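Lecture 7, part B: from sequences to assemblies.

Below are the input chains for today's worked example.
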Amino acid sequence: MRRMIVANLSRAALGLLLAGLACVRAAAAEPSIHVVDAWARATPPGVENGAVYCKILNNGGADRLVAARSSAAHGAEIHASVSQNGVVEMRRIEALPIGAGASLELAPGGTHVMLVGLGAPLAPGAKVELTLVFAAAGEIAVEVPVVDARAPPAVHEHEHHAQ
Amino acid sequence: MKRAQAVSVGIAAALAIAVGIGAALWRRAASQPPLEIGGYVLPTPKSLGAFELVDDRNAKITAQDFAGHWSFLYFGYTYCPDVCPLTLVELADVKKRLAERTPAASVSVYLVSVDPPRDSPERLHEYVTYFDPDFHGLTGDVAEITKLANAAGAVFFVPPGQDDKTYLVSHSSSIALLEPSGGLRAVFTAPHEAEQVAADFTKIYARYDGGQR
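Predicted structure of the full complex, as structure tokens:
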């Protein structure tokens, strides 16, 4: 009786393992996470920190953004600007959960990837390499264009050039 | 006795007149409902008190330097990569809108550093003029900055347990508006949107500029 249970358990374990491997293979074949519309804010001269914004689309199961790194900066951290009682505070986020089939927007004034210790100012038109690390989907490399986010001069306001 | 009576009547008359004037003034003041803006307007301006700071061109700045023009004050720092640039872009936009809408108003914009150990006048100058060539930066001793912040209804602090070089500073997200008397007239609360702030300023300017106070 006991032996039968053990045998059944090992069969179940083997089944789970195979199912797990199948999942990994499927994930490798078609990435479940897509990072789109990424941009970095061009930085004023002398500034050592930058910010990257993007949209994260998750076509797969629940996942977590757990780390970031960039060749443009000493470090890259996931941060959120949190406003509470009229005081804004930047909080470092260890892991940013993203639900199954969900999308997440990293936008100015909210969650962003902070580039800490820039090697050089981020110049408009340049591209920044960024790697986002997800717990399940693994590493995703993104090429991030640097955008001058200052408002266009009022006299040219009617022209509305696409950035 | 007659004379005392006459004095009493005189006092009574003076009191009646005073009460009448007071009531009329009160009615006039009360007939003006407070302006509704994205934030709040002070019915009487609040004096900033005394402090001494240095600007981004290394000039000494005291409370008197805010007299004679309208001032937008934002408390932030150059190591702040997200909300500070975002707010300064909006303020540059506000300034452009006001140049068209209230061209007679003299308007200055100040970034007051909440991180004086890292924000030198030179660094602030590079930073603020990136957003608008006319923007000003203010820095100085933490104690002096705190005086101005308190007077303008703003707070800032360094949350504990951070690295000495890469620390972040928490700070008020509001923008203070000083009127030409040098006193605090309004506080705009976040989120800041240039059109809203410009429209709010136009209302405040229409009511409080000139000798209408």
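Note for the exam: The interface with chain B takes residues 41, 43-51, 79, 81, 83, 86-90, 108-109, 112, 114-117, 149-151, 153-154 of chain A (CB under 8 Å). Keep this in mind when comparing with the next example.
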